Predict the 3D structure of the following.
Amino acid sequence: MSLYLGIDFGTSGARAAVIDPEMRLCVQVSHRFTSVEPHKQAIHWQEVLFSLIQQIPQDIRAQICAIAIDGTSSTVLLCDGSGVPLDAPILYNDVRASSALVELQAFFDHANLQGAPGQNVVLSATSSLVKLLWWKQQPVYSQARYLLHQADWLAFLLHGQLGVSDYHNCLKLGYDVARLEYPDWIEALGVMSLLPQVRSPGSVVGNIIAAIAIQLGLPTDCQICTGTTDSIAAFLASGVTAIGEAVTSLGSTLVLKLLSATPVTHATYGIYSHRLADLWLVGGASNTGGAVLQQFFTSQELLELSPQIPVQQESPLKYYPLTQPGDRFPVNDAALLPCLEPRPANPIDFLHGLLESMARIEARGYQLLQELGATPLVRVYTAGGGAANSAWTAIRTRQLQVPVFVSPQTEAAYGTARLAKGSRE
């Protein structure tokens, strides 16, 4: 039997999932990251990658015919001509490149390139391109030959081909996902020689290196594919394929992803679109979410109180639940204060008001995406810890006015395994 392996490198650890041709989950394993010095980070990733694969039972490993890997968006490595990292990786949330962001903004202003392809996405202190421009100012840059994303470098360890990436990871490098090419303006930055070749996510790069296959107990004809980002892998896990369907992730924050026939980009609200074949994954993220609930309720209290909420009655409490000031989507206001008053004495009423208010924010988010040109919402799948709260689901169904379901699969590794399977179809 042909099996497919997806590997997810997230923020706190890595997971692997193996699926069969019917997309049934065969095995899933995980490995938490340990704290290491920054210059040892890449070696730690390599150790985790190999350890994850070796945790899979040997009889399963022997049937794996394709592998894809996802990584955190804009986690990047600067490598020499042999693929050896020249510096510690810069992680997804590292803002050390802020000085380069100022210079990039000045470049766009001077060249009168407002609205150029990719501009809105790269103008962030955490974008891949800004991190590369920061590295360009460092002495180590003179030895650099490749800029690779986390998923690119991990896949290179298996297939041995440098300078290959996918258009999901490369969006924040400025890659024009509409035209499937780097935009002309990148030439003027003097970094083109380090940028990877860009392919569709899930494209076959080549067979696994024979010696690595033997070391890991994998078939020597196992194919290694281009990957994706961890957030898109989580979307792919849901199985959503029809336009108008969406996935809401109810984690610490609230993240919306809508599959649309048309792309939407809006810098003010932090909205941008990833390409999914001939469709577009339009997304936005709010700072409201489960982290607010955890400020006021324990997990046990949420379990006990939620079933007591009269979910068919709309709460009159109008909150904007935040853990600290500021939101960007669907309200763009860096100084927006949390609104958590008045607080009723009955904890059931308070919880009802919080869940109702978060559902209103979610509904407004999807409404905004549609106002800006995305395909109308028809169905929502739910991932994240909040997906298990049936009261919240009922409230959201009422506010969204479309069917709301729990995603049958939510692990990013499962979504990446689906990507690997697609390479063989």
Q: What stands out?
A: The chain is about 30% helix and 20% strand. Residues 205 and 343 are 56 Å apart (CA to CA). The radius of gyration is 22 Å. The first strand starts at residue 3 and ends at 9.
